[in-house]
Amino acid sequence: MELQLALDLVNIPEAIELVKEVEEHIDIVEIGTPVVINEGLHAVKAVKEAFPNLKVLADLKIMDAAGYEVMKAAEAGADIVTILGTAEDMSIKGAVEEAKKQGKKILVDMIAVKDLAGRAKEVDAMGVDYICVHTGYDLQAVGKNSFEDLQTIKSVVKNAKTAIAGGIKLDTLPEVIKVQPDLVIVGGGITGQADKKAAAAKMQQMINQG
Ligand SMILES: O=C(CO)[C@H](O)[C@H](O)COP(=O)(O)O
């Protein structure tokens, strides 16, 4: 199981300072969608250059023009690029093809997918690397989470790694670990803590104990 730190509410210098604090406790650093909107792919490039030993995920949440957008993220140094599960099959296949060409990975974000089991089976057959259940901020605000959804995809996905994102905190991490995803994505559960290093260290320890 790997731990990914999601950075959503920072600029490039703040991102670098934050990762410095926790780098030894995380496997992947995510340049979140709001950061890409504010800073562009320069944020991916800057973080990858500052932390070449960490994998960097560009959370582009691609919906169209997938091959081109994966190519640009790869050029900026992204190791993993996200596309939405609601995108056309042709877009997802295009993303996978380009990622393979560039030696990169594709994570499919299943946010807002209605038939989760059915779509997870379909995208799994397209050769994607990760399938991620995700409760976004707007649904977190009304008390939703993705713990049951994780069990759903675990039961149908045969090839891809499974991942979960959305509001995971220290107190809910044990529930996530029980379902054994391959990747746990945490934003505010680390970045919102006064002692970010301690929060990341504790999460890493819990994940390693599995
Ligand atoms: O992709 C995202 C929002 O769309 C976030 O990066 C993801 O939800 C993780 O952050 P948090 O743990 O704060 O929910």
Can you describe this structure?
The structure is a single chain. This protein has helices at residues 12-22, 33-39, 42-50, 66-76, 89-102, 116-124, 137-140, 147-156, 173-179, 188-191, 196-209; strands spanning 2-7, 28-31, 55-62, 80-84, 105-109, 130-134, 161-165, 183-186. It has one domain (2-209): TIM Barrel, CATH 3.20.20.70. The longest helix is centred in the middle third of the chain and has 14 residues, at 89-102. With 210 residues, the chain is an alpha/beta fold. The chain binds ribulose-5-phosphate. Ribulose-5-phosphate (5RP) binds at residues 6, 8, 30, 32-33, 59, 136-137, 165-168, 185-189.
Per-chain topology:
Elements: E1 2-7, H1 12-22, E2 28-31, H2 33-39, H3 42-50, E3 55-62, H4 66-76, E4 80-84, H5 89-102, E5 105-109, H6 116-124, E6 130-134, H7 137-140, H8 147-156, E7 161-165, H9 173-179, E8 183-186, H10 188-191, H11 196-209
Helix pairs in contact: 4-5, 6-8
This protein binds ribulose-5-phosphate.
Secondary structure tally: strands = 8
Hetero compounds = ribulose-5-phosphate
Strand content: 15-25%
Query: What is the residue-averaged pLDDT?
Result: 97
Protein name: 3-hexulose-6-phosphate synthase
Pfam families: OMPdecase
Pathway: One-carbon metabolism; formaldehyde assimilation via RuMP pathway; D-fructose 6-phosphate from D-ribulose 5-phosphate and formaldehyde: step 1/2
Catalytic activity: D-ribulose 5-phosphate + formaldehyde = D-arabino-hex-3-ulose 6-phosphate
